[in-house]
């Protein structure tokens, strides 16, 4: 099942290179159940008459745009098509996958919130006590005189 809206957004944003589009179409045509991509970049390059480095760049672009995601499963690295682009598999598995992704996003947001709070607390403490020096301050400090 393809989600047409996401493809339309991608086309309207005009962010993919021609190679990116070609690789994406090949991936969508070859995607396996649960959106796993079981075709090697070298095979894509051969099938499309592209150079392997160009396919690799297209994969990087697709990953950076979160169209595909890099995954590790059972110590094997691979890729998976973002479920927002489409889904191949049972609807119940899609629901479960969305729950997992939502949970991951919540955990990531909480981590960023803790980091932001820690940075704010450090800055507040430095304002209240200017003599407080952090490791980052020491790393940022430039020598005042030339070193021999």
Rg (C-alpha, Å):
22 Å
The total tally of domains equals 2
The CATH architecture category of the largest domain equals Orthogonal Bundle
User: Hey, roughly how much beta strand do the residues contain?
Assistant: 5-15%
According to CATH, what is the class of the largest domain?
A: Mainly Alpha
Strand order of the largest sheet: 1-3-2
Distance between the termini: 67 Å
* Averaged pLDDT: 82
Reported by name, the CATH topology of the largest domain is Arc Repressor Mutant, subunit A
Poorly predicted ranges (pLDDT <50, ≥5 residues)? none
How many helices does DSSP assign? 6
Number of strands: 3
CATH superfamily of the largest domain: Winged helix-like DNA-binding domain superfamily/Winged helix DNA-binding domain
SSE run: HHEHHEEHH
Q: Main sheet, how many strands, which sense, barrel?
A: 3 strands, antiparallel
**Shape summary:** elongated
* Fraction in helix: 55-70%
Q: By helix and strand content, what is the structural category? A: mainly alpha
